[in-house]
Write a structure and sequence with these properties.
It contains 23 helices and ten strands. The longest helix has 18 residues.
Amino acid sequence: MLASPDPVAAAEEVHRRLDALDPPGRHRPLRLLVAGVPVENEDRARAVARVLVRTGTTYLAVCTGIALLTRLGGPQDVPYLRTLGRLRSLVRPVVHALDALDRPAGALLELRDQCEPVTFGPLLAAVDAGDRTAVRERVTALPGDLAPDVARRVAEAARLVDLLAAVPGLPSREGAALVARAGRLLFRMTSLRDYRPEILSYPDAPRAYEAFARGAGLLPVRLGHHALLLSAVQELSTGPAVLHDWGPGRREAVLSELTAVLRRPEWCVAPDGEGDEPGVRWRVAWLRRTRAQLLGPPQAPGARLRIAVHERDPDDPGAVEARVLVDGRPLVPDYFGHGPAHSPEELLFPGTLRATDEPREVRLAEAYCTEGCCGALYVTVRRDGDQVVWSGWRCPVPPGGKRELPEFRFDAAAYDAEVARASGDEGWMWPARRAARLIAAGLRGRPDLLTRWNVRLDWAGTAFSNPDDTLISLFYDGEDGYVRQIRWHIPEDGTPPEDRAAAALRRLGEEDPRAYGD
């Protein structure tokens, strides 16, 4: 509580109190502290904040003013904040404030601070000049492999939704190029390699997806465009983008527009990737599998639990996820947000999600950096009469305090049917992945194949860099007491997955696997 009603005197008091801190404060804890302090008189607090921002003489005093303006500021404060943002030490607090007051200005400042000037300089100059034609041209010319956070900031700084609104008046080629770039930016924002998907930090995502869907019919039939449309349908069906506040029917309308384009005769013929580079061949195979999944018979409406296996476009690969949706909402990004859902090999094939009378704790997801660093998401699954109950959640405490996670109850018959359906669905698999599943199932059925060598199974899947390689990870205890890993690559040899799996199991029965890892 500040004693003086005069803003200048109150600001001087803030300076004195901050100078007296021992040890000295830092920006982020100070920002969180200011964000949580109740404000009795907003006009007075706003006046003090403006004095601190405009005349503050210490770093912490200015940061305090910036933090208060994050809560209480208005458009008239933006020019002062943009000026302060020219000071490198104040970029982060100013960006945080501008995100609340003028998001495009915050995005522009962050891009200018963090991004390479040769690539982004022309776009930033066009935004500064207010030349919307140049902005559109510069956005369209950007590389397609932008980092997820940079893709979001580009969309915000360029006001992507406003650019897309002008598509009907553009020549068809220019309009198609902008629609394709918008689809690519949205796709990059859905990557989970930054733990929390950037698409959730993009408030305009619903409007951007709507504009992308409206323009999708302009896209020429190409492999990359086909992949963009399918990826958008994936994310709007089971991904984090579902969690935005769409309002009644809007997301469903976008999905309807996108699938209508994909069902046009010219889009129904998948490109031929045979004999091309491996990356093209993998992408074409993914496209065929994903089309069959997304455009096949729809699931029965009204199911409370849904499990959807998600495989990302190999052009920007990610972990294969067993996405769990409850009441239509993807559970892992909603309640965890530090990494993707676990794979089908972890959640489905060993029967992990099956419910019994004996309560069982299940790990649904782990942070990309490992559980020991940023945690994991656990739930206890048990059968209770004619219901299955998910309760007893364990997950990291989010910023700002504890979050209570709800108890979910499912009709047991419907629950069992959905788990059985998802476990038996192999439509998403490719040969190397199926070989991995068969090897893991064989090892579960014959544990002696590993125990005889004092080795245990870690996981079975495919190599991230080469999906044609089956990769088996095994553990054993070294003589020095440390756990050792064996990474056993089984290359594609043209034989059926069943034959490759049988050969691998025979070899384990005859040879010590500690002799043939990487």
